C-alpha cells in the first residue's frame, strides 16, 4: 500500500510489486485511498510505503486510511506481519512522521513487524534498497516460494527508462534568462528563471515539478576545507562512484550544510564531547532537532578547531547533495522547449553567521545566463487543472505558491478553455511584491482571469492574508463550488495551507447551510473527486 503526494512513494510501491512478483509472490499494489477494498484481517504480509507532508501529516491519498486506522472501527490485526518504508525531508521538524505513525499504529493493532521500519531522506534510493533487501531476505525465510521462470516484466509507469534524461541522469539545461520579481527595497528576493529544454526530449505537464541539481557555495567549501585540515586536491570517490578532487566533490556531490546524526556521531567521537554524544540518544530527539536549528557543519569545526578530518573519512560521513524540487511555472504549449521557475532566494542570519540557501543562491548568484544546471521532470499526478476545460477553477497561491497557477493559466489560455478562473494571491506589499503583475492584470482586464483577489499583508495597519479574503468572498466561492469548481492551494504547508483549509471548511458550512461534520464530508468528497488539490511544502 502506498501513500504518495509527489509520486515517489507510488513509484517505489509499484517497483516493489514487480520485484515481489518476480520472486513468486502475489503482491497487489494498492493506493491507500482505496483501502476499503482490502481486508487487512485476511492478509498475511503488508508493506506500507508512505511519504509525509506538512508537520508529520499523511499525504492526501492516505488521510482517510490513517483516520480509519486511528478510529474505533479499525480491527485487530494479530494475523498480519508488516514493514514500513517512510519517505521524508530532514529539513522538516517531523521527519517521516507518517511512516513512524503507521509503524506505531500497526503494532498497537496487534500486527507483528517482520522487518524494521526505514526512514528515507530526499535521496531515498540507497536506504530504500537496503530496506528491500532486508524485506526480501526475511520473506524468503518466513514464507518461501518457488521462484517462477518469468520473462522480465515491462517497465511500470514512472519507472526510469534505461536511456534518456532522468533523476539519475539530469539534463544540463542552459539558463536563458533570469529577472527579479520584487521591486527595489523589498526584503524579499524572488527570481523568475527560464531554462531551455531543447534537445533533451524532456516533456512536462502543468502541475509537475522540476528537479534541480544544485551546487554548493565555493566560498563555504574553501572555509570547510581549511577547518577540516584538507587541501581540497585529495582524490575521493563520489556517491556516483566517480573519482574527483575533494574540492570538486564538496561543490557538486555532497551536502555540507545540515548536520546529520551520522556526521554528528563521527564528529562527537573525534571531539570527545559528552554533550554532542548525549544529543544522539534516542530520547534526546527533540533536543537534537532544536540544537540543529540554525547550525551547520561549519559551526562544529569552528567550535572545535582542534578537530581535523582526512578527506576520505570526511566524505564517508557526509550525505549526498540532494536535488531540489520546484513547481513549474510555465506551460509547454506557450513556451515550447522551455521550463520556467519562480524561486525565492534564501539568505538569513543565524548564530552570528550569514546563511545562504544552497539551491536558491546557486540559481540567483552563481549561475550566469547560458550556464547550465542539471534538471529532470518530477510528474505530479495529483495536482492538475480540471480535465474538463469548461469547469471553474479557484487557485490560492501566495508568495512563490503562485508558480503552478501561472502555468495553469497559460495552459488554459493555450487550449482555449472556457471555464472561469479565480486567483487569490498575496504578499507583503503591492508596490514591491506583486509577482507577474503585468501578466495577471492583463488576464484580468481581458476577462480570461474572471476574478482576481489580492492580499497585501503589510499595506495597512491590520494584516490581511489570503485566508481572510476567502472568508470575505465565501458566498461567491460557495456558488462556484456548487457549479463544480476545482479548488487548488500551493505554498507553505505549516500555516497557510492549514488556515486556507479551515477557511474552506467554514465557508462551506456557512454558505452551504451545513453542520461542521457535513462540511467536512463535503470537503472529503471534493478530495476524492480530485476537486480539492494541494501542492504544499
List keywords for this structure.
5-stranded parallel beta sheet, 35% helix, alpha/beta, 6-stranded antiparallel beta sheet, 19% strand, NADPH-cytochrome p450 Reductase, Chain A, domain 3, 4 domains, Elongation Factor Tu (Ef-tu), domain 3, Rossmann fold, 19 helices, single chain, 537 residues
Can you characterise this structure?
By secondary structure, the protein is of the alpha/beta class. The chain has four domains: 2-142, Flavodoxin domain (Rossmann fold, 3-Layer(aba) Sandwich); 171-213 and 323-378, Elongation Factor Tu (Ef-tu), domain 3 (Beta Barrel), CATH 2.40.30.10; 218-316, NADPH-cytochrome p450 Reductase, Chain A, domain 3, CATH 1.20.990.10; 393-536, Rossmann fold (3-Layer(aba) Sandwich), CATH 3.40.50. The protein contains 19 helices and 20 strands. The chain has helices at residues 8-23, 63-70, 97-108, 125-142, 218-228, 246-252, 261-271, 274-279, 285-292, 297-303, 311-316, 358-365, 403-415, 430-433, 437-446, 466-472, 474-482, 496-511, 516-528; strands at residues 2-3, 45-50, 81-87, 112-113, 118-120, 171-180, 190-196, 209-213, 235-237, 243-245, 324-327, 338-344, 347-350, 353-356, 372-378, 393-396, 421-427, 451-456, 486-491, 532-536. Strands 11-8-15-6-7-12 form a six-stranded antiparallel beta sheet, covered by helices on one side. Strands 1, 2, 3, 4 and 5 form a five-stranded parallel beta sheet that branches. It has a five-stranded parallel beta sheet with strand order 18-17-16-19-20, with helices on both faces. Helix 17 crosses helix 18 (496-511) and helix 18 (496-511) packs across helix 19. The protein is globular.
